[in-house]
Amino acid sequence: MRLKLNLACLCLAACLLGGCLPKSKPWTHPSEPDPRKEDKLYEEDLKFCEDKIGPQPQGDAREPVMADCLKRLGWKPKD
After folding, report:
1. pTM above threshold 0.90
2. How many Å apart are CA 45 and CA 66, to the nearest integer?
3. What does the angle CA 66 – CA 72 – CA 76 come to, to the nearest 5 degrees?
4. Is pLDDT of 71 > 90?
5. CA distances to 3, 13, 24, 42, 71 from 20, in Å
6. Residue 44, SS3 per DSSP
């Protein structure tokens, strides 16, 4: 019983700490060396591109349009 309780606490701690890890994004900005600033810039640029593109296109057609917008802002896809 005690082992199950310890295991449950360990799993709970891992889940809580997992939220502290930085978000993984498929893009990198070569001119921004600070990961925290890069994350903030990515969120801002992603919103800019979404606003610029609007609701159309949707689905698979949206991905290349978003990629083009991010590339124009200096982002490069991660390898």
Report:
1. no
2. 10
3. 75
4. yes
5. 26, 11, 12, 18, 28
6. helix
Domain residue extents for the chain: 24-79
Measured CA to CA, the distance from residue 31 to residue 25 in angstroms comes to 16
Which amino acid is present at 21?
A: L
Looking at the chain, the whole-number percentage of residues with pLDDT higher than 90 is 59
Helix (H) or strand (E) holding 76: strand 76-77
Could you count the other beta carbons within 10 Å of the beta carbon of residue 31? 7
Our separate counts of H helices and E strands in the chain read: 3, 2
Residue 21 pLDDT grade (very low, low, confident, very high; cuts 50, 70, 90): very low
Q: Which two tokens stand for residue 26?
A: 């498929």
